[in-house]
Amino acid sequence: KVAIKGIERELICPACKELFTHPLILPCQHNVCHKCVKEILFAFEDSFADGGSESSNQSSPRIRISASSLDRIDRINRSGIKRNSLTPRSTLFPCPGCQRDIDLGERGINGLFRNFTLETIVERYRQAARAAIAIMCDFCKPPPQESTKSCMDCSASYCNECFKIHHPWGTVKAQHEYVGPTTNFRPKILLCPEHEMERVNMYCEICRRPVCHLCKLGGGHANHRVTTMSTAYKTLKEKLSKDIEYLISKESQVKAHITQLDLLLKETECNSERAKQEASQSFEKLYHVLEEKKSAALRAIETSKNIRLEKLQTQVEEYQGLLENNGLVGYAQEVLKETDPSCFVQTAKQLHVRIQKATESLKSFRPAAETTFEDFVVDTAKQEDILGDLSFHSNGLEIPEINEEQSRMYNKALISWECPGKTDSADIYVLEYHKLNKEEESVTWQKTEVCGKSKVLFDLDADSSYAFRVRGYKGSICSPWSREVIMCTPPAPVFSFLFDDKCGYNNEHLQLNPRRTSVESRAGFPLLLGSERLQVGCYTTLDYIIGDTGIAKGKHFWAFHVEAYSYLVKVGVVPSNKIQKLFHNTHDVTSPRYEQDSGHDSGSEDAFFDSSQPCTLVTLGMKKFFIPATPAAPKDPASRILPLPSCLGICLDCDRGRVGFYDAGCMKCLYECEVDCSGIMYPAFALMGGAAVHLEEAVTAKYREYHDDI
């Protein structure tokens, strides 16, 4: 027999830390009290409703959601998990045993089995613990007698007299099953929680739980591999017996490990005390430095105060001497009483000089010393920041590096980082950022904690530069800060639109993806047929496509990618009153006859180009960005050709009537010009030959998770 008192740890609920009461088996095979499951679910749902705030976690005195569970709630909230009418409702449950979010399915608690075996063991433990404490009869009149047996069918305990009264001989109740006194009443037959009144007679090997025949025929286990209950009982019992025998045979090895662990416990205690002493010594050194600095600062202030007081006091005495019958004035009045001219002149000359100085001081009064001590203000802002970052540094913890290729600045900021090595990774990361401002002398970093290796930021200002850095934490140990990375936000709020598949869309030459975020021009068979009508020296015309949303006012920005293989792409804006002209333009603008830069310097071509074009466009193609030939542009054609950025952006300012073309990677303006914004403005694109344009995808809370899954 196994000593009941040696297994207390296995009989404690991980939620309430008390003995199990009606334990339920979770899908992760951990057990939790039925009452605890309900309380955790209520607290969990309240935390979801309140965004994971700790204030919402006060409904139950027995249950407290851990910080890790709150972090998971916050992470699930940020990930934007939503359910609609077409999605089966499922219940998420934060298991206190394995710290994972368990899906309880549509039935929730009602789909869980009670662990009657565990209940029986807990009851035996309780009986062994209370020993002499008797179970009283449920039907005796006060005072109740000690029970002698319990009826499993009636779920009640009886003394001998009450049992005879309620189970008379010759009746159906006389056939009830009775056992010794107990408070654990378990049903004789285990019923299926999904199909009530159906007995479980099979075991699903996939889900590792008992099922009934209806679950196998048309329920959630229809395609699962099942076995009979007797076979599962025999197989699992044999496996468990063998495992127990193996563990018992390794008893000496287990005892050796326990001895080793005891030594490690003592060593840990000693090392922790040593670490405490070293940490205390380090802080004592800081205290000593601060005390010295404090004493020096106070001494300097005291010395300055005494000097200033002395000067002011002397000045007070001088001015008191100017009063009548007092000091200098009194002495002068006495000198005036002298009647001997020679004696008077001898004394009055020096006295007159002193009187003149006193008169001048009255005309321009100025205190002999300053009363403020602004020069003695101690600026501790930098030191406070340094002390705020004071923590245990470890050489073994990898320094994270911000991945600038995966990080993005668009409608929101996505900051991603990675560690060079895969070992000793951090448990949590701290991302700090601040706006670059030359006018501010001190830098204030904004801080956010992240469980993963990416973070989406929502509160950044447009047309600004930000510095980012990140560090990892593993317990109380942290890594050094990563290299600071500077990134720029778009010059204006991001404008969202899709390609218009109705207005002027040529589906013979252009192909849109189902989401209307990408357009591709294919030089296929229809283009070859159309080329029969073309003359020598004239190319095909452009195929235009516009955005499905227009801009009437304000400043807006959008970005897109042009495939490297693209032969010719034009991008820009078009007013609503010129859209028809755009799609029905009879001029062959790509003919060398009307090429904007054909080599002539007369300027007539530029005039014709500006007046004939219905929209403002710039030319891209063959991995190049072509700055239009304008009077302000360089005369040398080679200087107007730039490498094509991986991501291009357009900023339209309707209020100022200007449009700018940007390298969206670094938010650098490549070209800007005036544009007529009298009408509603639409994004415009033109493609010829093999080319493709992809609109930049907006950054959302699930952006990083979505692309990681892909």
Automatic annotation (TrEMBL):
<dbReference type="InterPro" id="IPR047065">
    <property type="entry name" value="TRIM36_Bbox2_Zfn"/>
</dbReference>
<dbReference type="Pfam" id="PF13445">
    <property type="entry name" value="zf-RING_UBOX"/>
</dbReference>
<feature type="domain" description="B box-type">
    <location>
        <begin position="187"/>
        <end position="229"/>
    </location>
</feature>
<dbReference type="InterPro" id="IPR017907">
    <property type="entry name" value="Znf_RING_CS"/>
</dbReference>
<protein>
    <submittedName>
        <fullName>TRI36 ligase</fullName>
    </submittedName>
</protein>
<dbReference type="Pfam" id="PF00643">
    <property type="entry name" value="zf-B_box"/>
</dbReference>
<dbReference type="GO" id="GO:0008270">
    <property type="term" value="F:zinc ion binding"/>
</dbReference>
<feature type="domain" description="Fibronectin type-III">
    <location>
        <begin position="399"/>
        <end position="492"/>
    </location>
</feature>
<dbReference type="Pfam" id="PF18568">
    <property type="entry name" value="COS"/>
</dbReference>
<feature type="domain" description="COS">
    <location>
        <begin position="336"/>
        <end position="393"/>
    </location>
</feature>
<dbReference type="InterPro" id="IPR003649">
    <property type="entry name" value="Bbox_C"/>
</dbReference>
<dbReference type="InterPro" id="IPR000315">
    <property type="entry name" value="Znf_B-box"/>
</dbReference>
<dbReference type="GO" id="GO:0004842">
    <property type="term" value="F:ubiquitin-protein transferase activity"/>
</dbReference>
<dbReference type="InterPro" id="IPR013783">
    <property type="entry name" value="Ig-like_fold"/>
</dbReference>
<dbReference type="InterPro" id="IPR035727">
    <property type="entry name" value="SPRY/PRY_TRIM36"/>
</dbReference>
<dbReference type="InterPro" id="IPR036116">
    <property type="entry name" value="FN3_sf"/>
</dbReference>
<dbReference type="InterPro" id="IPR027726">
    <property type="entry name" value="Trim36_HC-RING"/>
</dbReference>
<dbReference type="InterPro" id="IPR013083">
    <property type="entry name" value="Znf_RING/FYVE/PHD"/>
</dbReference>
<dbReference type="GO" id="GO:0005874">
    <property type="term" value="C:microtubule"/>
</dbReference>
<keyword id="KW-0175">Coiled coil</keyword>
<keyword id="KW-0479">Metal-binding</keyword>
<dbReference type="GO" id="GO:0016874">
    <property type="term" value="F:ligase activity"/>
</dbReference>
<dbReference type="InterPro" id="IPR013320">
    <property type="entry name" value="ConA-like_dom_sf"/>
</dbReference>
<feature type="domain" description="B30.2/SPRY">
    <location>
        <begin position="477"/>
        <end position="704"/>
    </location>
</feature>
<dbReference type="GO" id="GO:0001669">
    <property type="term" value="C:acrosomal vesicle"/>
</dbReference>
<dbReference type="InterPro" id="IPR017903">
    <property type="entry name" value="COS_domain"/>
</dbReference>
<feature type="coiled-coil region">
    <location>
        <begin position="258"/>
        <end position="285"/>
    </location>
</feature>
<comment type="similarity">
    <text>Belongs to the TRIM/RBCC family.</text>
</comment>
<dbReference type="InterPro" id="IPR027370">
    <property type="entry name" value="Znf-RING_euk"/>
</dbReference>
<keyword id="KW-0436">Ligase</keyword>
<keyword id="KW-0863">Zinc-finger</keyword>
<dbReference type="InterPro" id="IPR001870">
    <property type="entry name" value="B30.2/SPRY"/>
</dbReference>
<dbReference type="GO" id="GO:0007340">
    <property type="term" value="P:acrosome reaction"/>
</dbReference>
<dbReference type="GO" id="GO:0007051">
    <property type="term" value="P:spindle organization"/>
</dbReference>
<dbReference type="InterPro" id="IPR001841">
    <property type="entry name" value="Znf_RING"/>
</dbReference>
<keyword id="KW-0862">Zinc</keyword>
<dbReference type="Pfam" id="PF22586">
    <property type="entry name" value="ANCHR-like_BBOX"/>
</dbReference>
<keyword id="KW-0206">Cytoskeleton</keyword>
<dbReference type="InterPro" id="IPR003961">
    <property type="entry name" value="FN3_dom"/>
</dbReference>
<keyword id="KW-0963">Cytoplasm</keyword>
<keyword id="KW-0808">Transferase</keyword>
<keyword id="KW-0833">Ubl conjugation pathway</keyword>
